[in-house]
Amino acid sequence: MQLLSSNVNLDSFFDNLSQAQERILLLDYDGTLAPFHVERDKAFPYPGVKELLDEICQTQTTQLIIISGRAIKDLIPLLNLNPLPEIFGSHGWEHLTNKGKYTLELSDSHLEKVLAQARQHIEELGLTGLLEQKPVSLAIHWRGKDTETINFIQSQVRRVWENLESIENLELHDFDGGLELRVTGKDKGTAVESIISNLDSRETPMIAYLGDDNTDEDAFKFLKDKGLSVLVREHLRPTNADLWIKPPEELLQFLGKWKMACLDK
């Protein structure tokens, strides 16, 4: 574990966590709890992660929330947690409460047509097998492909999607292993903001957010001075996070420390 902020003392954080009245653990999925996998429906958590999450939930002292770019329906079988925690999917556009209530905040027939147009372009290029359809976005994945294929995808897809981005309420986002065209207005930072704004407690909660790629930076930025931001990846990159940990060993250590803090109270 490597501290990236001089304002953070990790020992003090976990000491305060053990005394906290309210604890909130916010977790990205792909690249954070689970290694990337070319076959995305096989991207299961690192060994030991599910068990630790179950144990943290069983303490009934932590609000555990998953915040992912994936669609919620694709996350549920991978998480395999019972009961399911609260989940924000599709970068915050989808929400599933821990009571099972599901909401999708966007319903725009025009944008649906534009996304259908973007999908049609992918189909014409013969790249449908690399496409991920989400409720409010499209993502093209090139993980595991050779350089020539990646360059082809980059040039052909980016050109058309950038044109759609310039005339519609859409944004193009690079992520680790692909490109995503999604509706503007929500991101992982706004998801964290909504969680904090809806807290009932008068006590200051202890919060940590764990994420790995550029889409998590919105959450890191929002959490500045409000909680601990943790970058989870093999290699360090420029980031707004306070702490860098390498999965899976240091991820398991962090989750284990969180669990012990819950039990210390």
UniProtKB/TrEMBL annotation:
It catalyses: alpha,alpha-trehalose 6-phosphate + H2O = alpha,alpha-trehalose + phosphate. Keywords: Hydrolase, Magnesium, Metal-binding. Pathway: Glycan biosynthesis; trehalose biosynthesis. Its cofactor is Mg(2+). Belongs to the trehalose phosphatase family. NCBIfam families: HAD-SF-IIB, T6PP. Removes the phosphate from trehalose 6-phosphate to produce free trehalose. This is Trehalose 6-phosphate phosphatase. It comes from Phormidium tenue NIES-30. The lineage of its organism: Bacteria, Bacillati, Cyanobacteriota, Cyanophyceae, Oscillatoriophycideae.
